């Protein structure tokens, strides 16, 4: 690890610790959404970016994680319309089981994932979204039906990740509610997820995955078991999806089936394309961009010129936010083929004045070693 | 060299961070979350200061209900302006805090976390999935909330006030209307086309109850919100030989259903839920079919009715937003704003403008809204506020595209009905 990387890591870690003491709940929640999205996007980037397997069904695995956690952790209860089942397991166990369940769901699908590639797999995984939606809406005792069901807060060794009005936790004068506590959980999970994926990508499996993406036959000739790798990556990616789903559920405090739809799956694809295919950093940058930008724009677009207050004639803040977000996506895709990560790499090269000695910045659509972490 | 530059930059960043830490965190100083008494002796909480009262709106300006959401927001802004011009509430001016969620649950949750701590009540929240997603927080915050959805799953929560009737009540009154005025009698078959989800299922509860009571046979057809073409459903209804069809879907599906039925020679009455019709349908090819024998049930009076309060609203709205179409959102939004403001006024009388105080004041009113065509009882929250539904009929020339066909009434059937809650 170079000195600059180390310093950057220290700076980021310091920021992650300090932030919950200063920013209000709404920022923390946006940050948590971004972290959960980052975990999911890392998983999808392993599959789509690094191995070249298109998946449109990532939202399904998020749903499996979210609903799995709720089912494992909830105590059976009499609901309004129908009784809700649950296993009432300790919540950390439930979280781990939910991730494994998502992996198992991916495993069930992996015979298909191993045989199909590219757009064909994309269409096949699309089916998962619709199957998932049907199951979520109709398996009421497990999922709570259309309205979803409340999510029990995570509790690790007596420490509850929720608001505790009776015994408030105050650190350095700052009241620590659910979001502040979850923030640290999110940071730890994201760090673990990122490091693990980086290990996979940098090691032998990562090289094998990239070879499969770049030249399947060559990979086979060199002794890479192509089908097994494809299936394995699919399972791993669905486990990342499941973990993201658990975190999302904990932040939402209520699982809602409508959320885990096609739009969510597409936004995950947007994240890795915008951020940069095939790398952990790209996935994280893309996830932050896609989940934070619309919120930032909605929040501040009323300060822009020509924007009217809601309830007046003209372009309102909400419409403006959507237009600007769309523009930003188009600009990134048009002018930054390596995604935002490619831009960062380029800037670093430039500021380091190594442009002359370094090979010209890569603009290929497939990730290059420079854009990969 | 690059490394030393980077480290210098990071050192600068670290210094900045340190400097920031040295200042006391704003969060650490507490903020105004606690209830406090202000100068005029009124207890205040979040969203209320000495001179303003902030009221939230979580609306849909960019999603599938954008035109409805825009009408709601416009109408509520109009109401607040009129109240402010008349001196405000409790000596304070009303201020709307609007957030768009585009019918996306995550955005709605994010919006609630952002504006929730800054407002005293929610004048409208579009969409029952969105209300359900933040229901726990609404209950914990005791935030008076008016959802713009009428499913029975929204009942049973003290701070959440569903306006007027729920979908099932409308359907029971609708079946009663069919029996009394459209010659549907015991032994006949009637169809019910409904969306999966709590809108359709709430409505279905009502039609099932009414059909059983009147000895009718109910032919159910469930569709998804993404389905557009109703040809298969029409064929199924035709095969079953239904004498009338109840409609609890979106306006597009209604247009397809009614148009295809009439084209196929199935000339029968249709009765829709209030969300099944939109005046935007009239200029479409389905328009003539809708004008023929389609009715919809609504708990709130349509804006095209003769009530003086609504006539005045229509004039004011047209004066303020001359280019906006008038749809059902205008009256619905205006009425909901009225509910919130009256709760605030009542709360002011008892000198308690905290959220809990506002909810308590709201729940003390047992007959509200005579001027909007039908009183609502807010003292109970496990029952709909009203059991009376209007029968409205589309009309090309009427304001809002509909006229009152039959005045609001409460059928005998509905009195025996037990509303499922939660």
Automatic annotation (TrEMBL), chain A:
Does this entry carry the keyword Transmembrane?
Answer: yes
One Gene Ontology cellular component annotation?
plasma membrane
The source's domain of life comes to Bacteria
Q: How does it sit in the membrane?
A: Multi-pass membrane protein
Provide the protein's localization: Cell membrane
Main location as per UniProt: membrane
The record's annotation in InterPro entries points to: ABC_transp_permease, LivM-like
Q: Which GO terms describe its molecular function?
A: branched-chain amino acid transmembrane transporter activity
User: Could you tell me the keywords of this UniProt record?
Assistant: Cell membrane, Membrane, Transmembrane, Transmembrane helix
> Which segments cross the bilayer?
26-47, 59-77, 89-109, 118-136, 182-201, 231-252, 259-292, 323-344
Q: Which PANTHER family match?
A: ABC TRANSPORTER PERMEASE PROTEIN, HIGH-AFFINITY BRANCHED-CHAIN AMINO ACID TRANSPORT SYSTEM PERMEASE
Q: What is this protein called?
A: Branched-chain amino acid ABC transporter permease
Source organism per entry reads Planobispora rosea
Q: What lineage is on file?
A: Bacteria, Bacillati, Actinomycetota, Actinomycetes, Streptosporangiales
UniProtKB/TrEMBL annotation, chain B:
Which controlled-vocabulary keywords does the entry list? Amino-acid transport, Lipoprotein, Signal, Transport
Signal sequence, renumbered to the chain:
1-24
List GO BP terms, alphabetically: amino acid transport
The protein's matches in Pfam families, at most eight in alphabetical order, are given as: Peripla_BP_6
Specify the protein name: Lipoprotein
Q: Transport: is it a keyword of this entry?
A: yes
* PANTHER family in the cross-refs: BLR6548 PROTEIN (PTHR47235:SF1)
Which SUPFAM superfamilies is this protein grouped with?
Answer: Periplasmic binding protein-like I
User: What does the similarity note say?
Assistant: Belongs to the leucine-binding protein family.
Q: Which InterPro entries match?
A: Leu-bd, Leu_Ile_Val-bd, Peripla_BP_I
Entry's CDD domains? PBP1_ABC_ligand_binding-like
> What is the phylogenetic placement of the source species in the record?
Bacteria, Bacillati, Actinomycetota, Actinomycetes, Streptosporangiales
* Source organism of the structure: Planobispora rosea
All residue ranges annotated as the Leucine-binding protein domain in the record: 52-395
Q: Which PROSITE patterns does the record match to this protein?
A: PROKAR_LIPOPROTEIN
């Amino acid at each position: 690890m170079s000195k600059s990387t180390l310093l950057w890591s220290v700076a980021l870690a310091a920021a992650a610790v300090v932030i919950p003491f200063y920013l209000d709940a709404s920022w923390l929640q946006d940050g948590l959404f971004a972290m959960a999205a980052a975990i999911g996007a890392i998983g999808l980037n392993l599959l789509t970016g690094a191995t070249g397997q298109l998946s449109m069904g990532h939202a399904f695995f998020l749903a499996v994680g979210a609903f799995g956690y709720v089912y494992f952790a909830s105590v059976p209860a009499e609901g309004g319309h129908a009784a809700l089942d649950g296993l009432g397991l300790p919540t950390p166990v439930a979280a781990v089981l939910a991730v494994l369940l998502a992996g198992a769901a991916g495993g069930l699908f992996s015979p298909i994932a191993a045989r199909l590639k590219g757009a064909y797999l994309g269409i096949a995984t699309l089916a998962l979204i619709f199957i998932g939606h049907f199951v979520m809406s109709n398996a009421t005792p497990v999922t709570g039906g259309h309205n979803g069901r409340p999510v029990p807060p995570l509790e690790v060794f007596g420490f509850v990740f929720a608001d505790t009005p009776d015994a408030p936790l105050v650190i350095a004068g700052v009241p620590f509610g659910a979001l502040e506590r979850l923030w640290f959980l999110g940071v730890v999970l994201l760090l673990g997820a990122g490091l693990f994926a980086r290990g996979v990508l940098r090691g032998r499996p990562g090289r094998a995955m990239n070879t499969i993406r770049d030249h399947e036959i060559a990979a086979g000739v060199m002794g890479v078991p192509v089908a097994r790798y494809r299936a394995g990556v699919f399972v791993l990616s669905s486990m990342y999806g499941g973990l993201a789903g658990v975190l999302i559920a904990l932040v939402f405090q209520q699982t809602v089936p409508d959320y885990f739809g096609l739009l969510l799956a597409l936004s995950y694809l947007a994240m890795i394309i915008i951020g940069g295919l095939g790398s952990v950093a790209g996935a994280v940058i893309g996830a932050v961009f896609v989940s934070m930008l619309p919120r930032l724009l909605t929040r501040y677009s009323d300060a822009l010129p020509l924007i009217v207050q809601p309830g007046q004639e003209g372009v309102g803040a909400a419409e403006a936010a959507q237009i600007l977000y769309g523009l930003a996506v188009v600009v990134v895709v048009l002018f930054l083929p390596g995604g935002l990560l490619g831009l960062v790499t380029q800037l670093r090269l430039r500021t380091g004045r190594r442009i002359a000695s370094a090979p010209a910045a890569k603009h290929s659509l497939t990730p290059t070693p420079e854009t990969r972490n | 060299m690059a490394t030393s530059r980077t480290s210098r930059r990071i050192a600068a960043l670290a210094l900045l961070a340190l400097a920031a830490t040295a200042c006391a965190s704003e969060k650490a100083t507490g903020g105004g979350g606690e209830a406090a008494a202000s100068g005029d002796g009124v207890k205040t909480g979040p969203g209320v200061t000495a001179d303003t009262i902030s009221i939230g709106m979580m609306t849909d300006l960019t999603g599938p209900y954008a035109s409805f959401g825009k009408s709601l927001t416009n109408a509520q802004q109009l109401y607040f302006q009129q109240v402010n011009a008349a001196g405000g509430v409790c000596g304070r001016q009303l201020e709307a805090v609007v957030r768009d969620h585009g019918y996306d649950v995550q955005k709605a949750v994010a919006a609630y976390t952002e504006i929730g701590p800054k407002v005293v009540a929610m004048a409208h929240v579009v969409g029952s999935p969105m209300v359900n997603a933040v229901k726990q927080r609404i209950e914990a915050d005791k935030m008076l909330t008016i959802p713009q959805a009428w499913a029975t799953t929204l009942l049973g929560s003290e701070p959440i006030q569903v306006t007027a009737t729920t979908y099932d009540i409308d359907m029971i009154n609708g079946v009663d209307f069919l029996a009394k005025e459209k010659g549907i009698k015991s032994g006949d078959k009637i169809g019910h086309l409904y969306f999966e989800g709590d809108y359709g299922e709430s409505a279905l509860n009502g039609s099932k109850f009414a059909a059983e009571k009147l000895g009718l046979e109910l032919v159910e057809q469930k569709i998804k919100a993404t389905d557009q073409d109703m040809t298969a459903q029409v064929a199924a209804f035709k095969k079953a030989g239904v004498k009338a069809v109840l409609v609890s879907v979106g306006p597009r599906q209604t247009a397809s259903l009614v148009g295809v039925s009439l084209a196929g020679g199935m000339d029968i009455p249709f009765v829709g839920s209030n969300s099944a019709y939109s005046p935007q349908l009239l200029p479409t090819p389905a328009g003539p079919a809708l004008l023929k024998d389609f009715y919809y049930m609504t708990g709130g009076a349509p804006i095209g009715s003769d009530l003086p309060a609504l006539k005045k609203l229509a004039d004011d709205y047209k004066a303020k937003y001359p280019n906006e179409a008038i749809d059902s959102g205008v009256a619905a939004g205006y009425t909901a704003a009225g509910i919130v403001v009256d709760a605030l006024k009542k709360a002011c009388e008892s000198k308690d403008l905290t959220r809990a105080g506002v909810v308590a004041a709201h729940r003390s009113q047992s007959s509200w809204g005579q001027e909007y065509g039908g009183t609502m009882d807010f003292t109970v929250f496990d029952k709909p506020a009203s059991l009376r539904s209007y029968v409205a009929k589309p009309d090309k020339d009427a304001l809002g595209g509909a006229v009152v066909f039959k005045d609001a009434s409460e059928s005998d059937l509905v009195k025996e009905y037990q509303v499922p809650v939660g």
